[in-house]
Fold Response regulator transcription factor.
Amino acid sequence: MTSPSTPARVLVVDDQAVVRAGFAAIVDAEPDFVVVGEAGDGAEAVTLAGRLSPDVVLMDIRMPDMDGLTATSLLTGPTSGHVPRVLVLTTFDLDSYVYEALRAGASGFLLKDAQPAELLTALRVVVAG
C-alpha cells in the first residue's frame, strides 16, 4: 500500500460523469488521498488500474459494458498483478449486492447517499486494511 506520509492513490469509477467528478473532487481535496484516474465503466477501470496501480478503487456496481462486480473480480483475482482494494458504491440498498461485492473481492461497500465524511472514513478504513 502506501506509507503514512504518502497519499493513497485512488481510481474513481462511475458511469455518470457528474457523480464521478463529485466523488473525485471530495477525495482529491484530502491530503491523504490523490485521485490518479477516473473511468466510466468496468472495462476502462481494469485497463486504467493496470496502468496506474491505484491503492484503492472506488467502484460503482451498475455500469454499461462491464459492471463493477465483474471489474472487481478481475482486479482482485489471482491472475491480476497489482491488487488494489475496492470500495464498492451503489444507489441500491440490496443485500444481494453487498454479498456479491464481497464475494467478488471488494474490501467495503457504501451507499451513494452517504455523507462525504462517511465516504472518506470508508476509504481510510479500506486503505488501512
